[in-house]
Design a protein that fits this description.
This protein has about 500 residues and is of the alpha/beta class. The protein has helices spanning about 35-50, 70-80, 90-95, 110-120, 140-150, 180-190, 205-215, 250-275, 280-295, 300-305, 385-390, 430-435, 445-455, 460-480, and strands spanning about 25-30, 55-60, 100-105, 130-135, 165-170, 195-200, 230-240, 310-315, 325, 340-350, 360-365, 370-380, 400-405, 410-415, 425-430, 485-490. It is built from 14 helices and 16 strands. A hairpin with a 3-residue loop joins strand 13 and strand 14 (about 410-415). The protein is globular.
Length: about 500
């Protein structure tokens, strides 16, 4: 009988069994939307999968006058509604709820932080602390300062020691430009060591995003052709079918470039274009990501205008059929707003691997589809054999990495149609959810688990955040100084097109 490779073999990575020490997880803004929709459901599922240490405690910090029982009731309703594992299992919920408590306090009250420190020093609580700042970014610095003044910071301990920890988790947006991001890093580093600061971009916790490293560097059929000799172009899209909803107050100050391009799209760019890291250690991977950003040319204003487009959705029908009067009619949006709800930019990574390969970043709201994906377009075969018959109709190979929805990968290739002398495009396809329909973790589960374990691989380093802002700052400045047109596109359409190269 013919010998065949055992295709069922798997390699269990060393970090599959991360050591997660017992800790007190303090969630600031514990009654806010982020905590209710994402953080507490993630904690429930981590505990359900026995990924939280059984002695871990969860403490909610907020202003509302809740008793412990009222707070736990609010969280139970949120987890019942927003957890991706349904229905809520009462015995598993009770196991977590028994380790939850509530602390009423104001973020601008230093006395409240002193009381918090006294509470956390209790003999029955773990010595490790994870402070999750689930609030507006303008409160990150003041909250870190209050924690440090109450004796709960970590900067005074110098380099992160082995053993006990005090870690700080902060959400995006991390600053509003490069200067503010740098200032925020300086402020946080005054009170917490850099190795204790975990900057979250939830896109990095998505399974398909994590798989980029595995796909590229664990397969010899991809890495040898992952370069300018074989790749013609790469497109990265994060497209949304809904409008801005109730976020007008924030969004009209930020726009699509600051809200999405600076973080989500740039992170996908880094993982797609990075060189093989020396090891799988966190700093090796994060170092290669920063090198990608350093390799992006600083374009002139004229170059950026020629390589980009900004748009704003006008009246139309959203993908769900609902009618909208357009962005400027949304609540808390200025009637004459020039904030972009669509942004696209074509750039190059000026290194040996990708010199001359265009990368297109595209994001927008109120579009005809909800989709995030990376498309790697390979060059057509040389002009031999089929070129004379097929010409441009011979399709290039296209690798599509879908991040959401329908997470998976598609590889398009040319093959003969049985019975006729014709070439059609076929696809090799893998669907993550079909292969893992019993359990598909949410991004926050992975990220909170990693923060507890002290693994910063999927978190953003200070210099990485600043370099990402360099790119977006120059784009926004070019738009403003060059009086770039604001293209109004119909809600529910595919959005405006980039100028041709």
């Amino acid at each position: 009988m013919e010998n065949r490779e055992d295709l069922s073999r798997s390699c269990v990575m060393d970090d599959e069994d991360q050591l997660i020490e017992p800790a007190v997880i303090v969630i600031f803004g514990a009654t806010g939307d982020l905590a209710l929709r994402k953080i507490f459901p993630a904690l429930y599922n981590l505990d359900r999968m026995e990924r939280l240490h059984p002695q871990t405690k969860v403490l909610g910090f907020a202003r509302k006058p809740y008793s412990r029982e009222e707070f736990v009731g609010v969280i139970e309703k949120a987890v019942s509604r927003f957890s991706h594992t349904q229905p809520l299992q009462p015995e598993l919920w009770a196991r977590l709820a028994d380790r939850m408590d509530y602390f009423r306090g104001d973020l601008d009250d230093s006395a409240a932080f002193a009381r918090l420190a006294a509470l956390l020093a209790g003999p029955d609580l773990p010595v490790n602390k994870l402070f999750y700042l689930a609030m507006g970014p303008d409160l990150f610095g003041p909250t870190a300062k209050h924690l440090a003044e109450a004796g709960l910071g970590s900067a005074e301990r110098g380099a992160c020691p082995d053993g006990t920890f005090r870690r700080l988790v902060v959400e995006k947006p991390y600053g509003s430009d490069r200067a503010s991001a740098k200032a925020l890093s300086k402020t946080l580093q005054d009170y917490f060591s850099e190795c204790d600061i975990f900057r979250i971009d939830h896109y990095l916790g998505k399974e398909t995003v994590q798989n980029l490293i595995y796909l590229r560097f664990a397969n010899s059929i991809f890495e040898p052709v992952w370069n300018r000799n074989h790749i013609e172009s790469i497109e990265i899209d994060v497209l949304e079918s809904g409008g801005i909803g109730s976020r007008g107050g924030y969004y009209d100050r930020a726009g699509a470039s600051r809200d999405m391009m600076q973080n989500h799209l740039v992170q996908l760019l880094c993982l797609t274009a990075m060189e093989p890291p020396a090891t799988l250690k966190p700093e090796s991977i994060r170092e290669e990501k920063v090198k990608v950003l350093n390799s992006i040319h600083t374009y002139s204003k004229e170059e950026l205008l020629a390589r980009s487009v900004r748009g704003q959705y006008g009246p139309g029908h959203l993908a769900d059929g609902s009618e909208t009067a357009g962005y400027r009619a949304e609540p808390k949006v200025a009637a004459d707003s020039r904030t972009e709800t669509f942004a696209a930019l074509r750039l190059e990574v000026d290194n040996w691997r990708f010199a001359g390969v265009p990368f297109t970043l595209r994001t927008g709201k109120a579009l005809d589809r909800q989709m995030s994906e990376i498309r790697v377009r390979f060059r057509r075969p040389p002009s031999t054999l089929f070129q004379g018959h097929c010409g441009d109709s011979l399709a290039p190979n296209l690798l599509t990495i879908r991040i959401q929805p329908d997470e998976g990968m598609w590889l398009g290739f040319n093959a003969k149609v049985p019975g006729v002398a014709r070439i059609d495009v076929n696809e090799l396809r893998i669907s993550y959810r079909e292969r893992n329909n019993d359990y598909f973790p949410e991004a926050y589960e992975r990220l909170i688990g990693d923060a507890l374990a002290g693994d910063p691989t999927l978190f953003i380093r200070a210099d990485e955040a600043e370099e990402a802002w360099r790119l977006v700052d120059s784009l926004v400045a070019a738009w403003n100084e060059g009086n770039a047109p604001l293209v109004v596109y119909e809600a529910g359409s595919s959005g405006p097109a980039l100028p041709r190269a």
